[in-house]
Structures are given as structure tokens and as C-alpha cells.
Specification:
With 239 residues, the chain is an alpha/beta fold. The chain has a single domain (9-235), classed as 3-Layer(aba) Sandwich (Rossmann fold). Helix content is 45%, strand content 16%. It has a 7-stranded parallel beta sheet with strand order 3-2-1-4-5-6-7, sandwiched between helices. Helix 2 links the parallel strand 2 (33-38) and strand 3. Helix 3 packs parallel to helix 4 and helix 4 packs parallel to helix 6 (155-175). The longest helix has 29 residues, at 106-134. Bound molecules: NADP nicotinamide-adenine-dinucleotide phosphate (NAP). The site of NADP nicotinamide-adenine-dinucleotide phosphate has 27 residues, from helix 1 and helix 4.
């Protein structure tokens, strides 16, 4: 895949995180302009300072994805600056282990559902009018293996990632005649410093490198995947 995204405008949420950073690098290497969205401006700036390839423009947009007005204003700021949003990569999200369901509190449920599912609703809702106007768009969401293979003590997380998958399918159904594709990836455990610290004795070689996930995100955004919409792609590595 070489320079397939010349001058495309990509908004990457969670752009300062492990996978967001890998996705931003991969798109920038192929000529895209990138809007990096995350909570902390300095954290985003440090990604930009990691020498994203020259010739592409990368800009930081600090935003709390759980504040609907801020999401709308930020995506509008991206459109004002770059002219449009071609590709929305919804990478932001998170994980918490919890107690069993009988001890799960409202705030545990709300935290996972908001961070993982509501954030995707907000960004899709804000970006879609521009994509519909342009008659072209790509949305790639991040669900998780846990959406298909839920485990105990992580009910809110599994439910939130299942919601991302279902929302993806629903938006895909709504936009299939509009030049827009909407898909999600379902990572297994990602090989991140945080996971290595939390699970030092696991076989890290079985985990999925962020760069491998980024390759699939780019495929879904590419012309090669123009007929793929509503897909949920498992990416489990060797685990
Ligand atoms: N890591 C895994 O093993 C794994 C497995 C399956 C699926 N996933 C999913 O893959 C995606 C990326 O994972 P990752 O490991 O790259 O996560 P990560 O490194 O924690 O990156 C997530 C980024 O999102 C940001 N963020 C959190 N809340 C936000 C908010 N309200 N508004 C704006 N930005 C916010 C975080 O900022 P702060 O750091 O400041 O909070 C962080 O920079 C997530 O959707 C995750 O659920 C991960």
C-alpha cells in the first residue's frame, strides 16, 4: 500500500494512545493529513513531535469525547482547518476489570459505556453530515474480541464493545447508498507497554502489535475495501 491516502483528511481519536499513534503514523506515511484528537494537548503534541513524515500536515485537537458540544465544535474545527473529514478512525476507548455483576455500580457501567460506546456515537454523529455532503467517507471503529467472546468480571466493558459493533452495523446500514463505509475491528490483546506491565508473564509474542491493527484500519479506509461495510474484523494475533 503506497501513498494511497494522498491529501485525504483523517481524524484519529485516541491519537495520543498506543493504537491511535500507530494509526496516525501509518496514515501519515501514506500521504494523509491527520487531525489527532485526544484529551491532552501535550500528549498529542508528543506524537506529532515523533517525526511524522514531512509533506503531510498533522494537527492536535484536544477534546473530551464525552462532551457532545465539544465533540461537535472540535470536528467542525477540523473541517474548518482541513476542508473536510474523509476518514474517521475512532480509536479512543479503554478497559477496566470490574467486580461481578451483582457488585457492579452504575458508575462502573456508565464509565465503560460512555468511554467506549457513547464517544463513538458522538464522533460519528458529528462527522457524518460532512461525509454525506461530500458523498464519500470512511469510518473505522474499534470494538474488541470481548464483544464476541465476553468474559466474567468485565461485563460493562464487553457490553460497551458489543455496542460499538452493533452501532457500526447500524450506521453502515444507514449509509450504504451514500459512498460511506463503516466498519470495526475487534482486537485481541494489543502488545502495549501497559499490557506488558500488567501481564509480565504472558507470552507477548502472541499479542497483536499496534502496527498490525493499523494495517487493517488502513485497508478498511482504502479503495480496496470500497465494497466492505458493516464488517467486524477479528484481529487476535496468535492468542
Ligand atoms: N489495549 C488492548 O489490549 C485492547 C484490546 C482490545 C481493544 N482495545 C481498544 O483499542 C483502542 C485503543 O487501545 P489503546 O491500548 O491504544 O488505548 P490507550 O493507549 O489507552 O489510548 C486511548 C487514548 O484515548 C484517550 N482518551 C480516553 N478518554 C478520552 C476522552 N474522554 N476524550 C478523548 N480522549 C480520550 C486516552 O487518553 P488518556 O490516556 O489521557 O486517558 C488515550 O490517549 C481502545 O478503543 C481500546 O478499548 C484495546
Amino acid at each position: 500500500m503506497s501513498n494511497t491516502f494522498d491529501d485525504k483528511v483523517v481524524a484519529v481519536t485516541g491519537g495520543a494512545g498506543n493504537l491511535g499513534r500507530a494509526v496516525a503514523h501509518a496514515f501519515a506515511r501514506r500521504g494523509a493529513h491527520i487531525a489527532l484528537l485526544d484529551l491532552s494537548e501535550p500528549a498529542i503534541q508528543s506524537v506529532i513531535d515523533e517525526q511524522l513524515p514531512s509533506g503531510t500536515e498533522t494537527r492536535a485537537f484536544a477534546v473530551d469525547l464525552l462532551k457532545p458540544e465539544s465533540v461537535i465544535a472540535t470536528l467542525q474545527a477540523v473541517i474548518d482547518h482541513f476542508g473536510r473529514i474523509d476518514i474517521l478512525a475512532n480509536i479512543a476507548g479503554g478497559f477496566t476489570m470490574g467486580p461481578t455483576i451483582q457488585d457492579t455500580e452504575d458508575r462502573d457501567w456508565d464509565f465503560m459505556m460512555n468511554l467506549n460506546a457513547r464517544s463513538v456515537l458522538y464522533t460519528c454523529r458529528a462527522a457524518l453530515p460532512n461525509m454525506l455532503e461530500n458523498g464519500w467517507g470512511r469510518i473505522i471503529n474499534v470494538s474488541a474480541r470481548a464483544a464476541l467472546q465476553p468474559k466474567g468480571r468485565m461485563g460493562p466493558y464487553c457490553a460497551s464493545k458489543a455496542a460499538v459493533k452493533t452501532l457500526t452495523e447500524s450506521i453502515a446500514a444507514e449509509t450504504k447508498f451514500d459512498g460511506i463505509t463503516v466498519n470495526c475491528i475487534l482486537p485481541g490483546t494489543i502488545d502495549t507497554p501497559q499490557n506488558r506491565e500488567a501481564m509480565p508473564d504472558a507470552d507477548h509474542s502472541q499479542w497483536v502489535p499496534p502496527e498490525s491493527l493499523a494495517d487493517v484500519v488502513l485497508f478498511l479506509a482504502s479503495d480496496a475495501a470500497r465494497c466492505v461495510t458493516g464488517a467486524a474484523i477479528p484481529i487476535y494475533g496468535k492468542s
